[in-house]
Amino acid sequence: MNTEEPKPCPFCGQANALPVVEGDGEHLAVMVHCYNCGGRGPAEPVELRNMGCRAVLDILTDITEATGVVVEEWNMRQTTNGNESELIDALEDALRWMGKLTDWKGAGDPDIDRYRAAISKVRKQGGNK
Q1: What DSSP line would sit under the chain, residue for residue?
Q2: Is residue 39 packed enough to be buried (19+ CB in 10 Å), middle (13-18) or exposed (0-12)?
Q3: Using CA atoms, how far apart are residues 47 and 80, in angstroms rounded to an integer?
């Protein structure tokens, strides 16, 4: 089991990020969530199975393994260090992970379009890409 802790948030720089498990009754996913700025990602789906005693232990094992995966991926993300272009790239990376989660759940996330519009506006104002 990976016992690595999440590094500070690549969006706000605060050390207030923890792995969380979210679900809707049919699907589960593990992701890292920053409780300072709301930054999230990456998401790792966890398969739900028949809910017998053994299945519950299997799901807990899968959640533990998924937690190690998302923390490792979170820790590989670059911080922005005040560079607007790097921040926009990091936000677009987060949107890709959000899209992966919503595609997996089979439902869209209305915030994704709002975030994409905000990124586009910043790019136009800053002249990046």
Answers
A1: ---PPPPSPTTT--S-EEEEEEE-SS-EEEEEEETTT--EEEEEEE-----SHHHHHHHHHHHHHHHHHHHHHHHHSPP-TT-HHHHHHHHHHHHHHHHHHHHHHTS--HHHHHHHHHHHHHHHHHT--
A2: buried
A3: 34
CB 29 within 8 A of CB 101: yes
**What pLDDT, in 10s, does the model give residues 78-105?**
655 556 676 677 777 777 776 666 555 5
pTM exceeds 0.70: no
Token pair, residue 33, equals: 């969530």
Long-range contacts of 3-9 (CB under 8 A, 24+ apart): 4/68, 4/71, 4/72, 4/75, 5/71, 6/32, 6/71, 6/74, 6/75, 7/74, 7/75, 8/79, 9/34, 9/36, 9/37, 9/39
* Torsion angles phi and psi, residue 128, rounded to 5: -85, 145
